[in-house]
Amino acid sequence: MSNKVRHVIGISGGKDSAALALYLHQNYPQMDMEYYFCDTGKELKETYDLIEKLDHELGGNKIQKLEAAHTSHKDPFDHFLSLYRGYLPSSNARWCTKKLKLEPFERFVGDGPVISYVGIRDDEDREGYISRKSNIQSIFPFRRNIWSEDVINLVLRNSNIEQVANHYSQTVDKEKLHRILDVVNTPISEKLAQREKLKSLHNLGIKDFNKVVFDFLKNTAYPIALIDNFSLLEKENGLIRKDIFEILENSTVGVPKYYKEVEFEHNGKKGVYARSRSGCFFCFFQQRIEWVWLYEQHPELFQKAMDYEKEGYNWVEGETLEQLILPERMNKIKEDHIKKLEKRNNNNNSPYLVDILEDAEAEGCAACFI
Fold this sequence. Notes:
five-stranded parallel β-sheet
């Protein structure tokens, strides 16, 4: 097994992974990055358009297409749907994620040391996909905290306080060291949660913290232990949703068209809807208003999604797509959505505001690679 560390980015076809590829390509060109796209065969045309534009921006022929069951005469999703005897995937049985995304990815990276760069933003409170394979390490360049939760759990473990303190002693000057060691030497307990300890150490210097983590991991089996230098240690700022859109808009790639809000009218009131995710056009994580969007904007794809449904196998919990597009039901979905939009607009000064069409990419199969 080679000790050469590979650097990889999974391109989902969504905004965050595309922006991450551009961000690293523009700011860290010295990284020998590999790009891959797991093709389910059921993506929107806009997704394939984005992949093509991004590949051109990266230099051409850079994004490798991975396809599960590539020897089958069927596309990947239909191949495995047949193997599962028509059992549609759902939030409780995500065989599509496993078979169409995770397994092709893990075959692609093999057993050698790999650093996987994940496009989770600094305004998201989630971890995303962490491989169970010990040779794969996740890094989050958009976050102020670039390290995965398992790394933070290890470094800030109470039993490692002395080791971390020693690393800090070799990293920072004496003037700052005293304040840092006050935090380091305070054990995690009911009085000091790990998250608060991490925040305090970040406030005292993210670069210093990153250097300490990097040095700490040198004596572990993490892939990053095999690297002499790591450019992202110098990064201090996090990137949020508006930054991601700016990166895309300032390139030839642009924002995926399915994010563009479309206006509709219901009972004299106006609302907007859009798609909030990359991934299959029939993704079961879609909100009901997104299914309405699909029906009205891509009726041929909606029909294909309906064709997959059988007795007891629905995309949407509690109703079939045929029931969802009944006029009375669609009107209720639009009415509820407009109420949510109005509530959002009335509370637009709230620090807890989230989009009505939240970044559901975080919940779908693309979550593995965004």
